[in-house]
Amino acid sequence: MLLGVIADDFTGATDIASMLAKNGMRTVQTVGVPTGDEAPAADAVVVALKSRTIPAADAVAQSLAALDWLLAQGARQIVFKYCSTFDSTDAGNIGPVGEALLDRLGGIAVVCPAFPATKRTIYRGYLFVGDVLLSESSMKDHPLTPMTDPSLVRVMARQVRDPGTVGLVGCETVQQGAMAIKAALDRLQAEGKRFAVVDAVADADLRAIGAAIADAPLLTGGSGIAMGLPDNFRRIGALAEGGTATLEVPEGRSAVLAGSCSAATRGQVAAVAGRWPTIRLDPQELAAGQQSAEAVLRWAGEQDPGSPILIYSTAEPDAVRAAQDALGRDRAAAVLEEAFAAVAAGLVAAGVRRMVVAGGETAGAVVGALGIDQLAIGPEIDPGVPWVQANGAEGLCLALKSGNFGTEDFFTKAFARLA
Ligand code: ADP
């Protein structure tokens, strides 16, 4: 293993894993810290934690456990991956986790969540989302991590032990290239800084920063910061020229499970509903026992094996509200998630080997039910959503799509991408 990544949530982990795979590293994502001692056959391993909004002390403990495991497997460099909108509060968890990792690893760590492809840019240490400052974007109203200060230097300074240990490498330096960036980082470190927010407004900036930190034991940021890292390993002969990530896809049937009600998923469901064998899960019918996972599986067994099947609970906001009024929000979600979990397990037992799952919570329920703890990263379908392959579960290939991701023809495109 060359590169170890500690990610603070599941879809964020997939995002950076896909970036590394696209740039030619064989990449595996683990669900939580692996318990075994066996290193996956991969150049990069991304440990997906769920530590973004838990108490800071727990986030630190989990991240250090991930670090210990990655170092034991031989990781030469560690990335701490968080969201490109720097999702955190003054209590953490980016500062405390970054600081705990740095206490172990030493050096100065860049802080660079920029991801120009999704319009996250940093200028003079201020984070922009599209054309507005972070604090003017919808992130200001986030239910768990409202971002009201756009200055990453200030935000980070509030989260670390000594506010004076956070510095800035501005764009005028970044644009001079890797040597200048490295010199600036060395200077900041000599002044006692431990973290350096680094400006980046374009992919070229991220690649220059990547080259400048080839020898840094720790770096922190979004998926963008990973862009330049594979080339560092290539330059020293540790990584071969990259091909595109491929998976050995087992023979079997294809299914879509859609539990997201987000706008993008509603469009994606409408695009194939009725064209493929289709069945709708209804939370009230499930709760009343008029529908069941067993019945859905019987139905699935009767469909043409040559066509993907679509099983969805996706509904318009009015229908979601009606179900929530009748059952309560948590119960409506729980009966559906349980049903999707049971259906997913039954489908795999019945020979389904390619499965698209739409919805973050829904995907979590499915991965949990299938007992999957490692995923090899394959080809990308849409930005940030690759095909992945489970280590167990009969080599099941999965596309785990957060609700609002992907174009309208995502489901068709996904299966075509594996063909
Ligand atoms: P997204 O990624 O779009 O947020 P999630 O799967 O994370 O999708 O969340 C959608 C939630 O809504 C899940 O908990 C799911 O069980 C619930 N849900 C799905 N369909 C319905 C429905 N028809 N009525 C009520 N709740 C639903």
How would you sum up this structure, described in words?
This protein has 419 residues and is of the alpha/beta class. The protein folds into two domains: 3-235, Putative sugar-binding, N-terminal domain (Rossmann fold), CATH 3.40.50; 253-418, Four-carbon acid sugar kinase, nucleotide binding domain (Molybdenum Cofactor Biosythetic Enzyme, Chain A). The protein is 38% helix and 21% strand. It has 15 helices and 18 strands. Strand 16 (374-382) and strand 17 (385-390) form a beta hairpin. The longest helix is centred in the C-terminal third of the chain and has 21 residues, at 329-349. The model has no long low-confidence stretch (mean pLDDT 95). Adenosine-5'-diphosphate is lined by residues 259-262, 265, 283, 313, 315, 319-320, 323-324, 332-333, 336-337, 359-362, 402-403.
Blueprint (SSEs and pairs):
Blueprint: E1 3-7, H1 10-22, E2 27-31, E3 44-48, H2 56-72, E4 77-81, H3 94-105, E5 109-112, E6 120-123, E7 126-129, E8 132-133, H4 152-159, E9 166-169, H5 171-174, H6 178-190, E10 195-198, H7 203-212, E11 218-221, H8 229-235, E12 253-258, H9 263-272, E13 278-280, H10 283-287, H11 293-301, E14 309-312, H12 317-327, H13 329-349, E15 352-358, H14 360-369, E16 374-382, E17 385-390, E18 397-401, H15 410-418
Parallel strand pairs: 1-3, 1-4, 2-3, 4-11, 5-10, 5-11, 9-10, 12-14, 12-15, 13-14, 15-18
Antiparallel strand pairs: 2-16, 6-7, 7-8, 16-17, 17-18
Bound molecules: adenosine-5'-diphosphate (ADP).
